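User: Design a sequence. Structure:
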C-alpha cells in the first residue's frame, strides 16, 4: 500500500483495522500504512487513552459495549504499572529448567516480556499475545495450546488443549483473574478459559494468582478457583498479597 502521510488518516485506518480484527501487530500496521513502526508509535502516543502497544501488538483501550465488562485487548488498561510490578515479582520466581504456564489476559503479557533468558525454560500458553512475545526469546521453548481462537479474549480453546495439559508436569502456573472475592472465589469473564485454568492449576506443583488491587472485591461470571488453591496471591499492594 502507498504511504499514508496524514496522521489523522493513519489513526482512522488503525481504528478501522482494530474494529475488523480486534488486535493487530505493530509491524503489520506499519506495513499496511507504508510508514515505520516508530511513526505508528508516535501517532498512537498523540492520542492518549485510545490505544496501547503491548508485546508488539496494538490494542484499543475503548471498552466494547455489551462485552460483559471485559475484553482482552479492548479492556481499559489503567493498571499497567501495577501489572508490571506484579509480573516482576512473579518473574523472580522462575528458575532454571522450570516448565511454566502463563495464562491469558492483560496482565500476563508483562510476565511474558520478563521471562528470564539464558535458562532452560519451557512456557505453555494459550494467549496469542503471550505466544508472540515468547517466540522471540532465546533458549525458551514455547508450547502453544491451540484450537478455536476467541478474538474478544485473545486466546484459544479446545479439548485437545486440555489433553495436552494432562500430559505435562508444570512447575509453576501463573494465573490471572478478573475478580477475587472472599465469598465467590476467583473468577474471570470468559467461560472457555475455565477448563484450561483449572487443568493448569491441577497439573502445577505451585500455582500463583497474579491480580492488581482493582480486582479485589470484584466478581465475574465464570468461577474457576478458590483463593486457597494458590500458593501465593501476588498483588501490587503488599496488604492484599497472600501466602497459602
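Assistant: Done.
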Amino acid at each position: 500500500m502507498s504511504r499514508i502521510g496524514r496522521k489523522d488518516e493513519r489513526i482512522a485506518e488503525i481504528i478501522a483495522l482494530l474494529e475488523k480484527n480486534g488486535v493487530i501487530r505493530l509491524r503489520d500496521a506499519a506495513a499496511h500504512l507504508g510508514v515505520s513502526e516508530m511513526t505508528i508509535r508516535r501517532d498512537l502516543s498523540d492520542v492518549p487513552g485510545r490505544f496501547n502497544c503491548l508485546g508488539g501488538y496494538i490494542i484499543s483501550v475503548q471498552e466494547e459495549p455489551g462485552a460483559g465488562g471485559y475484553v482482552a485487548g479492548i479492556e481499559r488498561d489503567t493498571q499497567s504499572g501495577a501489572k508490571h510490578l506484579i509480573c516482576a515479582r512473579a518473574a523472580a520466581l522462575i528458575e532454571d529448567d522450570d516448565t511454566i504456564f502463563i495464562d491469558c489476559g492483560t496482565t500476563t503479557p508483562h510476565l511474558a516480556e520478563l521471562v528470564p533468558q539464558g535458562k532452560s525454560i519451557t512456557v505453555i500458553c494459550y494467549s496469542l499475545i503471550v505466544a508472540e512475545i515468547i517466540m522471540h526469546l532465546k533458549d525458551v521453548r514455547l508450547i502453544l495450546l491451540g484450537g478455536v481462537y476467541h478474538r474478544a479474549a485473545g486466546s484459544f480453546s479446545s479439548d485437545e488443549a486440555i489433553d495436552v495439559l494432562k500430559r505435562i508436569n508444570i512447575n509453576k502456573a501463573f494465573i490471572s483473574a478478573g475478580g477475587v472475592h472472599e465469598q465467590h472465589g476467583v473468577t474471570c469473564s470468559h467461560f472457555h478459559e475455565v477448563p484450561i485454568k483449572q487443568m493448569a492449576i491441577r497439573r502445577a506443583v505451585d500455582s500463583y494468582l497474579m491480580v492488581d488491587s482493582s480486582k479485589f472485591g470484584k466478581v465475574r461470571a465464570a468461577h474457576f478457583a478458590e483463593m486457597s488453591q494458590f500458593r501465593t496471591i501476588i498483588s501490587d499492594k503488599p496488604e492484599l498479597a497472600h501466602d497459602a
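The chain has two domains: 7-60, 80-243. The chain is about 30% helix and 25% strand.
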